[in-house]
Amino acid sequence: MKKISYLLVILTGILLISTAALAQEEYMPGVPRNELIIIENPDGRATDPDNFNIWAPGSPSWSRGLQQISMDTLWYIDPDEGIEGDPWLNSLAEEPPIYNEDYTEMTVKLRQGIYWSDGVEFTADDVIFTVETLRAHPEMNWGPQFEIYVDEVYKTDDYTVVFKLKEPNSRMHSTFTVRWSGCYIMPKHVFENAEDPVSFKFNPPISLGPYVSESYDPAGYWNLWKRRDDWERTTLGKLYGEPGPKYVLYVGLSQERRILDQMKHELDIIHDLSPEAAISLIEKNPYAITWFEQFPWAHPDPTLIAILLNNEKYPYNIPEVRWALTLSLDVTEIALASYNGAATLSSIAVPPTGNHLTWYFEPLQSWLKDFSINVGGEEFHPYDDTIPFQLAERAKNQFGYDVPTDEDKIKQSLGYGWWKYAPDVAAKLLESQGFTKDSSGRWLLPNGELWQIRIICEAEGRPIMTRGATKIAEQWKKFGIDAEIQGVSTAILWPNYLTPGNYDVAYAWNIETWGGHPDLSFFLRTWHSNFYRKSGDASAGSNYIRYKSEELDKIIENLLKIDFFDYEKTIALGQDFLKLMVEDMPEIPVMSYNVFTICDEYYWTGYPTSDNPYTNPVPNWANSKYMFPKLKPTGK
Q1: What is the C-alpha to C-alpha distance for residues 357 and 336, in angstroms, rounded to an integer?
Q2: Residue 156 carries which DSSP code?
């Protein structure tokens, strides 16, 4: 009996220890850590956490899981190879769009057997309702596209939608095609009962994706999502299988907290870090992986970081002033400050990533070298194709990185060239427009007032943006402009400043391309003057710089008349656009957005990398949903 009692005591102790261990493995009540993936939301804190209406103007924080794992639309284009080995992906549509001969009609065949999370079937009625609602409310996201282009939308059966267009538009499907985002489909049976679709908060959000909202922080710092029991009735589950994690937590964190949490394996995916922080974390955490195993490490997004100039505001409406600002910058200094030199430079208005090098950068080299601007009656050639090699040498000497030495590899990793650092030429351009300097060497506007520039930029979430903007301000100050930065949170940069044109100069991006396709209509279609909105009104797309020209309108109109898959004509028109942007310089392109996304393989494995580039690992992209069926638990 004593021996049995002794054994019972031991077993009871083991059971208590095991129970305690299991309790400790719960990240939050009812959520086991090994069934949960924790992902950084770079927006940080949601400004209106109980609002899930992604269609409303200025809608807050799409990146809290809302667009990645809750929403869905007709098609996706992956910036990398795509989960099927092809960047084009049919989602709610079962095949690519079908156009008539003159592109005035688009027919969409919908996938059958897809259901909303409340059990209602997805049908053509949802697509029609989405278009008609947004067309009736052009102030809502995607509303202007439908108001301008769609004459009529109707169904021929529950799974076939026909769009009658007001004019030829071979890119109508682009509105419903996700690259970072796209026009997501509304649940008709929910929104038709809303008194006002603009102010309706859509809470709880009815999901078309494989996860539903489980809970969220009323203060806006985190959102918890749970895998649907009927995940196989979503496009992701139906096509690619069960998503690995049962729970997904999107959380906003400071850079210091991100590093600490991933070291403790309490953060599975870091959206972005400063280069030195990323390299330090990789060295300390044996479970950390990045897109490239070595230099330059980061994932090159098809996103162009640029100095955005509000072309409505004086003196940024003057081309000579815009060129003067360009030539007063040493871009190698900006690259070293931003990315420790691991930056991919761009002199033209398209990100220098993927096949863009073949489609745009290589073919335009001779034109760029021949291009000149008139300065005081003399021709000045501003392009310098030696700058990436200068940057490589400086990165090697300053940081000791093992940088490429092969010419082609330097072009691929650091870019093809940029604009000369020529402050003397910049000064002549300003003087030609009536600018003068005071006794302290500071530039004065023609009316005698001190020229002051405040650069709006991100102050949290993306340190490379803050550092780049700071270096630009330093260089302009050295040139004689009273320049400073104003850092704002990621959550308000776009809705409060860029979209309404509430700025003069900003360091951000407005040019994002498909990545997997040469067509530039992803951003360019809303730059047509039909979409133009003055500062004070929300821009209809990404034309935050309020730029317009008749030549640009013609390029866009011609682009919309040719087949989306006619690469030769598409590239030719894209090159025309890029030449126009060089000549006018309405914004100053700088570099691609290289994202130091770091994934931790302690709990989950199967993340995409450059060796297995099935999708984009950067977690605020809607395309990142294609990661989830590939993620497998490690057993810890």
Answers
A1: 22
A2: E
Q: Which residue has the tokens 């899981």?
A: 65
Residue 216 pairs with which residues in a beta bridge? Answer: 223
- What percent of the chain has a predicted confidence (pLDDT) above 70? 96
Q: Rounded to 5 degrees, what are φ and ψ at 162?
A: -120, 130
pLDDT in tens, 600-622: 999 999 999 988 999 999 999 99
φ and ψ at 341, to 5 degrees? Answer: 90, -15
d(CA 155, CA 88): 25
Average pLDDT, the chain: 93
Cβ neighbours, 10 Å, residue 634: 12
* 3-state SS string for 230-293: CHHHCHHHHHHCCCCCCEEEEECCCHHHHHHHHHCCCCCEECCCCHHHHHHHHHHCCCEECCCC
How many other C-beta atoms are found inside a 10 Å radius of the C-beta of residue 28?
A: 14
- What does the pLDDT look like over 532-591, one tens digit per residue? 999 999 998 899 999 999 999 999 999 988 999 899 999 999 999 999 999 999 999 999
Question: What is d(CA 630, CA 84) in angstroms, rounded to the nearest whole number?
Answer: 12
Encoded amino acid at 229, one letter: D
Q: What confidence tens digit (pLDDT) does each residue in 365-419 have? A: 999 999 999 999 999 999 999 999 999 999 999 998 888 888 988 998 899 999 9
Beta-strand (E) ranges in 513-615? 587-595, 598-600, 604-605
Mapping DSSP to helix (H, G, I), strand (E, B) and coil, where does residue 136 land?
helix
Strand partners, 598: 270
Pairing relation of β-strands 247-251 and 36-40?
parallel
Nearest of 245, 209, 211 to residue 226 by alpha carbon: 211
Determine the residue type at 250: Y
Q: What gap in Å lies between CA 628 and CA 618, rounded to an integer?
A: 13
